[in-house]
Structures are given as structure tokens and as C-alpha cells.
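Researcher: Next entry in the queue.
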Amino acid sequence: MKAKNSIAIAAFTALLFTGCGIKTSDYSVSAENVQTLKSYKNIKLGIKSFTAETENESTVLCRAAETIETPNDEAFEKYIENALRDELIIAGIYDKNADIKLSGHLKKIYASSMIGNAYWSFDIKVSSSNGKSFDIESKNEYGSAFLAYTACNNMGSSFAPSVKKLIKDIINHPRFNELISSK
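Model: Structure for this entry, 183 residues:
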């Protein structure tokens, strides 16, 4: 009887704390970011490929139980690159042939699902074809949970909003004007 109870408890625990992987959502542009970008008058910007310290990484492990992955298995740096491009397009300032092109180098991406300390963080160097650049760290907190299944779902669903905040932090950075200046 004890053996059956132990097996049942182990099976229940395995179901409760493990899963098959969670896809983050596709990126959708931020009205706030678009408004900020529209405020830059008479500018056209392009995008160069983003790179990363850990190239082509598209997953993070949540609580050693779930894999959080980008929607199309694209690398994190590519997801951020595409998100910024989408923001520029909707703001009407994107031109793939523009003289000024922005790029980024993702130095570090980190996600935590701890109760009371759940967040995504990005450490990225943003550069311009004009030779200017700056480093930025962006952190976006979100609500977590005690159960791994819920906490990991929250982690996955908070990735796109965290990238929106990253882009907001980039385009509101005091040195962003330097990146988009042709002087």
C-alpha cells in the first residue's frame, strides 16, 4: 500500500511540476513606443542584424521544469531586432536603405520566476552606423506563483511585454538622439 501511495504521489508531483514547454507570444507593437518614435521628425532608420554573446539562443529554463521559448524558435536577439523593426515600421520611420542603421548586441538575457522577484532582464549594447553606441540594462517585473506550471506560464507570457519595455528604455535613453543623428 505504501508503495502505491508513493508512486501516486510521485506521478502527481511530476505532472504538477513539469511540462512540455511554453511558447512566448508573437510581438505586437506598443502604442506608446510608436508615439515616441513618431516624435522624431524627418528621420529614416534602418536595422542591421542584432548579435548576442550566446548566439541563436531561443530558450530559457523555468524552475528546472519548463522550457520557455520564442514563438518561432527564433533567437532572442532576432526577436528583439524584429520587434524594433516593427516599431519603426508602424511609426513610419523605417527604411531598409536608410543611411542610419541601428543594431544591438545582446550581452545577457536573464529570467527569474521567484515569488516576489519575478522578472526578465536584458543587458544590451545599442549601436548606430554613425559610430555612436550606448549600453543599457532593462528589467521588467511580473507576477509569479508558487506552482511551477503557473509561474512558468507567467514567465512565458511576460516576455513580449518585457521586450516592449526594453525598446521603450532604448528609445527614451538620453543618448538615443546621438544614435539617430547623422552628424
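Model: The two ends are 79 Å apart (CA to CA).
Researcher: Noted, moving on.
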